[in-house]
Amino acid sequence: MDPARAEACAAVLDRPAPTDTLPPFWHHLHFWDVQSGTRLGRDGHVARGVGMIPDLGLPRRMWAGGHVEFMSPLSFGQVATRRTTLRDIHRKTGRSGPLALVTLVHEIGQGDILRLRERQTLVYREDPSPDALELIVPPAPEADVEETRIFDALTLMRYSALTMNAHRIHWDESYATGVEGHAGLVVHGPLLVEGLIDLATRYVGPLATIDYRATSPAIANETLTFCLRHGGPTSLATAFVRGADGGLRMTAEVRPA
After folding, report:
1. What integer pLDDT is reported at residue 135 of this predicted model?
2. Which residues lie below 8 Å from residue 154, measured CB to CB, with a gap of 6+?
3. Residue 106 CB: number of other CB atoms within 10 A?
4. Which of 70, 124, 214, 238 is placed for a possible disulfide with 100 were both Cys, Cβ 3.0 to 4.6 Å?
5. 159-172: per-residue pLDDT in tens?
6. Are the C-beta atoms of 65 and 104 separated by less than 8 Å?
7. What is the spatial distance between Cα 3 and Cα 147, in angstroms, rounded to a whole number?
8. What distance in Å separates the CA atoms of residue 116 and residue 131, rounded to the nearest whole number?
9. Is 98 exposed, middle or buried (0-12, 13-18, 19+ CB in 10 A)?
């Protein structure tokens, strides 16, 4: 685990550089799956059907949610191994048409010690249709703690580079708006999760788990409010991201260690 990647991420997020261990959820800086350009699809991701996820016939991919168990921090200067399993593919029809939910499970360890287990859910959709129903965005509730942040295009580009994420919705505005129908460049899901973890950790302490779900895209240069509702240092807390329109961008339950 190279501390230089964490130092670079700390600079991008304007945080103090970590010293001995990787901050929670920063494991996405590691375990790159670097492919040649000929093995990438139109959206910059690995082409459909390359790797363990089969071609589902649906061109758009988004990070829908996940669950993470934090057993112990990953230590710098030690070899870490990630084992990934394709757990499930579930097809259904939503308001916007056919979609597929893909569940991956990642287990990360150092030596014989399991440090982290992550369940990641991806959603695959059709291209947007002119007659598709408008996305209903639920309103965000009130919170005990609120902090605002704005992610500009430069921050998204630097985070994409740190995580080797070439998804064009994060750096190619003409593609994000003209092909996938977003209002602008899309903020990375992991950036929102990391922000919620950081907020919760500062107010309720180190976390045992986080269970999160994306509800609507967060857009570059949008004023985002990271929120926390908590009942004390040992209670299950609710964390969420409120968009500039008052709607939920992401919601999570966090459990203190």
Report:
1. 74
2. none
3. 18
4. 124
5. 999 999 999 999 99
6. no
7. 28
8. 43
9. middle
- As a whole number of angstroms, the distance between CA 17 and CA 11 comes to 7
Distance between CA 172 and CA 111 in Å, rounded? 40
Q: Kindly tell me if the per-residue pLDDT of 153 is higher than 90.
A: yes
Pairing relationship of beta strands 237-242 and 97-110 according to DSSP bridges: unpaired
From 181, 175, 86, 90, select the one nearest 132 (Cα to Cα). 181
DSSP character string of 135-190: P-PPBP---SEEEEE---HHHHHHHHHHHT---GGGT-HHHHHHTS--SSPBPPHH
pLDDT band at 94 (very low <50, low <70, confident <90, very high): confident
Proportion of the chain above pLDDT 70, given as a percent: 97
Q: What is the pTM of this model?
A: 0.94
> pLDDT by residue (tens digit) across 106-126?
999 999 999 999 999 999 999
Characterise 25 by phi-psi region: left (phi > 0), alpha (psi -120 to 50), beta (else): left
Structure tokens at 78: 């030690």
Amino acid at 33: D
H or E element at residue 200: helix 189-204
199 sits in which H/E element:
helix 189-204
120-131 core/surface letters (b: 16 or more CB in 10 A; e: else): bbbbbbeeeeee
